[in-house]
Design brief:
Order of helices and strands: HHH
Number of domains: 1
Number of strands: 0
Shape: elongated
Low-confidence stretches: none
Strand content: under 5%
Number of helices: 3
Structural class: mainly alpha
């Protein structure tokens, strides 16, 4: 679990940027400039990033600890799904 909100935001940023970078690396090693599959994964990663950051910045939850734990669990599930899609590209 992240120690602070700032750490959680950094984790979200690093993870999604790594996934996007991996998509570009896969395309480069396959000799493509970009493919429709990687574009779809990148678009999904950006949408999920925006959604999770919005949830982290939400000031309404009364139980903040449970809220941030749920955000971390959603991050893990989302990232695992995206990594599975990236692995199918290669």
């Amino acid at each position: 679990m992240a120690k602070s909100i700032q750490d959680l935001k950094k984790n979200i940023n690093y993870v999604f940027s790594d996934i996007i970078e991996t998509c570009y690396i896969v395309d480069a090693t396959n000799g493509n400039t970009t493919s429709a599959d990687t574009d779809a994964i990148i678009t999904e990663a950006i949408a999920n990033f925006d959604s999770l950051i919005k949830k982290v910045n939400d000031k309404k939850p009364t139980n903040k600890k449970a809220h941030f734990k749920a955000v971390e669990q959603e991050l893990e599930a989302t990232v695992n799904a995206l990594i599975a899609k990236v692995n199918k590209l290669g």
